[in-house]
Amino acid sequence: MWREKKPMAVSQTYTAPVLPPPVKPFEEKPMVETTKSSSVISSDPGHTVLGRSVVFKGDLSGSEDLVIAGQFEGTLNVEGHCVTVGPEGKVKADVQAARVVIHGSVHGNISVRERVEIHKTGHVVGDVLAPGISIEDGAYLKGKIEIIRDGEEPEAVRSFAPLRAVETIA
User: pLDDT averaged over consecutive 10-residue blocks of the chain (170 residues)?
Assistant: First the structure.
């Protein structure tokens, strides 16, 4: 009927417990904050950088290159040097410089001795006075462009008149 279970022979062998591999001590490393890699913003000693969180109002003049990643409002004069407006930069100012490179937004007149570059993310509302200008496909420019020829220095190079509001007729 019921089958009887036969006792099984049990062999007595000892197996050593398997130990986990030795744990390497935990080395705490500081977190590295990843930032946007941009060829626009440089930390060279010959540059002044207005960071993304900086809001500056007033008159600014200097004798070194300037990178604006934040907001600037007023007048800007860095004769003989370059002004770069970063992709997130917003400038509401008349700008005088040797060269201006725009990736962000500029509302105001721009007067340069060498060249103005407006990249595809650039947005300019104002008059441009320069010997050379480069406007990339996709860039926005609303204003007058006056090209200065060699040896020519109109009075407007020294100072642009501020933009005047245009009245619309209803």
Answer: 60 61 57 43 68 92 93 93 96 96 97 96 97 95 92 52 42
pTM passes above 0.85: no
Domain contains 21: no
In a domain, 82, yes or no: yes
Domain presence at residue 111: yes
Bridge partners (DSSP) of residue 75 are: 59, 94
Burial class (CB in 10 A: 0-12, 13-18, 19+), 75: middle
Q: Total structural domains in the chain?
A: 1
Which structural domain, as residue segments, surrounds residue 143?
47-150
The token pair that represents 38 in the structure block: 């941009």
